[in-house]
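Bumping my old thread because nobody answered last time. Still need a sequence for this structure:
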């Protein structure tokens, strides 16, 4: 009886090892890598921040439509919402959320010299939600036009349009 038991144990061990080796050979899906191009039109508000007499500092919030000619994660249309700080000495830093029209989000950090016409902006894709979870990449664009309409209390409305919006991304 001991020999029969031993044979059954060996068979079970071999079968388990076989199952484990087949599981190890299955491939995980490959990462999606791509490039995208498009444009963005955005508007919002800019508010003077009383920082120093020799520096212009503004906070701003802008939102608008990102329209891509080539897809980013199989999507071509996003709604962008950005908040930023612009300093005439150190430049602008911005945080954006691009929302796919069905809900998932992409998180982006941007930097530039200033929020103004002919200013080049560079950025990093730092993550996302749902199907964009783990996304990474980079992007850049030029502001082709930025206009300000002065209002009360140091606040102004802002409208901007981009040119040469392009980037690369990787989805895990």
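Sorry it took so long. Here it is:
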């Amino acid at each position: 009886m001991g020999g029969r038991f031993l044979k059954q144990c060996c068979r079970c061990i071999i079968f388990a090892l076989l199952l484990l080796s087949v599981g190890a050979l299955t491939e995980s899906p490959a990462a999606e890598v791509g490039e995208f191009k498009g444009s963005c039109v955005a508007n919002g508000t800019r508010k003077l921040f009383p920082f120093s007499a020799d520096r212009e500092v503004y906070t701003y919030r802008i939102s608008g439509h990102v329209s891509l000619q080539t897809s980013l994660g199989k999507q071509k249309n996003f709604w962008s919402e950005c908040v930023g700080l612009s300093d005439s000495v150190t430049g602008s830093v911005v945080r954006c959320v691009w929302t796919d029209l069905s809900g998932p989000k992409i998180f982006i950090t941007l930097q530039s010299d200033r929020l103004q016409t002919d200013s080049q902006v560079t950025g990093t894709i730092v993550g996302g939600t749902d199907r964009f979870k783990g996304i990474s990449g980079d992007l850049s664009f030029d502001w082709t036009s930025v206009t300000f309409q002065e209002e009360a209390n140091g606040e102004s409305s802002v409208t901007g349009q981009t040119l040469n919006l392009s980037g690369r991304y990787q989805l895990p």
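The chain has a mean pLDDT of 87. Let me know if any region looks off to you.
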